[in-house]
Amino acid sequence: xxxxxxxxxxxxxxxxxxxxxxxxxxxxxxxxxxxxxxxxxxxxxxxxxxxxxxxxxxxxxxxxxxxxxxxxxxxxxxxxxxxxxxxxxxxxxxxxxxxxxxxxxxxxxxxxxxxxxxxxxxxxxxxxxxxxxxxxxxxxxxxxxxxxxxxxxxxxxxxxxxxxxxxxxxxxxxxxxxxxxxxxxxxxxxxxxxxxxxxxxxxxxxxxxxxxxxxxxxxxxxxxxxxxxxxxxxxxxxxxxxxxxxxxxxxxxxxxxxxxxxxxxxxxxxxxxxxxxxxxxxxxxxxxxxxxxxxxxxxxxxxxxxxxxxxxxxxxxxxxxxxxxxxxxxxxxxxxxxxxxxxxxxxxxxxxxxxxxxxxxxxxxxxxxxxxxxxxxxxxxxxxxxxxxxxxxxxxxxxxxxxxxxxxxxxxxxxxxxxxxxx
Length: 423
Ligand code: GDP
Ligand code: IMO
Ligand code: MG
What we know:
- The chain is an alpha/beta fold and about 425 residues long.
- The protein has helices spanning about 15-25, 75-85, 110-120, 135-140, 150, 155-175, 180-195, 205-210, 245-250, 280-290, 310-320, 360-365, 390-405; strands at about 5, 30, 40-45, 45-50, 65, 70-75, 95-100, 105, 200, 215-220, 260-265, 270, 305, 310, 325-330, 340-345, 350, 365-375, 405-410, 420.
- Bound molecules: guanosine-5'-diphosphate, 6-O-phosphoryl inosine monophosphate and magnesium ion.
């Protein structure tokens, strides 16, 4: 059974926790897109792990983890992450972590170019994670990027880094941002590359062998549908296809290998970074931040919070081909008397049940809400669907109905054990 786990909102839906839960019955976990802009939180046996590039299966002893060709990989960042996770007692051997030789490399100047672009945009800035993701994907598409395999050809790589560093420096100097010495970029990159070298090869045969042998492969999506370069709130998006198709192009496993797509969403909506957020609600943000929740795992920024938006979810279920929903953070709504669910947008007097493409239409989109009674009960200790309060089940069933997909999992807390399987 090969399953894609996709975020259905603006990222941080709880994908890491769901992947970790499903990993128990999987053999291989694959990341196919994004980079260390992702921050996936997993709490296992009381210990909290934050993963950026490492697939969540790394926390298990006997799983193969693959960083696929669609990922943009910051070697220095990955070595730091491996060290941090190893210091938490997790062993990361070459057998356990395979890195695609086709993955593009994020170089130090990509991060500064990311900052430069943001500075140039002023109050129109995207609010990126400043991990160099956009500039690295731009080089890939522009056919001037460097892949892990290219680092094996030292002369080529040195010439390429030297040329690209000079080009980057011209841009950085214009913004009074720090420039780079090519020698230093080369030295730091190779130091990290040497540490990663035993993990690097072509993982496609490994994945195909697992598929043909009937093993279970899990695809760990990063970011979310509304951050997808094609389907998201462009230009306030990331630079990859975060939706289900990206898992195939980003790994070398074809669409015919996929059996199921689990779409992960919160029971409400969050967004970090800039861009439209029709159901954003200051009261709900303050309430959740007051509980110490909804601070970004990568940048620590407080996430904006808002009511559940089924206009987004309906679209996300369509473009991902969701076969089952995982609704996380239901417990975040435990104290509310009444809950709002956005069922459509009103834009200039017309009702829309799918998100618009037009940038300015987003600013005029007024959410149309339906009110549902809250459950006013602590759900964090519920371990079966039956145990959930009737109003909570009612809320979930309405959510499924509005999105056109069945609910498969419900999250009532951050721990591995706080995941309910819906019969
Ligand atoms: P990801 O990027 O999609 O993996 O999600 P993040 O880890 O960035 O953010 C999700 C946050 O919600 C993390 O702090 C998780 O520990 C937490 N979380 C996930 N599921 C639940 C849940 O059902 N209830 C609660 N209270 N927290 C959850
Ligand atoms: P996970 O995998 C939430 C957002 C940034 C910004 C936009 C572009 O943890 O769900 P980028 O650095 O990618 O160029 O930033 O995308 N963003 C995320 N928001 N969760 C993420 O990942 C994100 N990755 C990028 O905040 O708005
Ligand atoms: Mg996250």
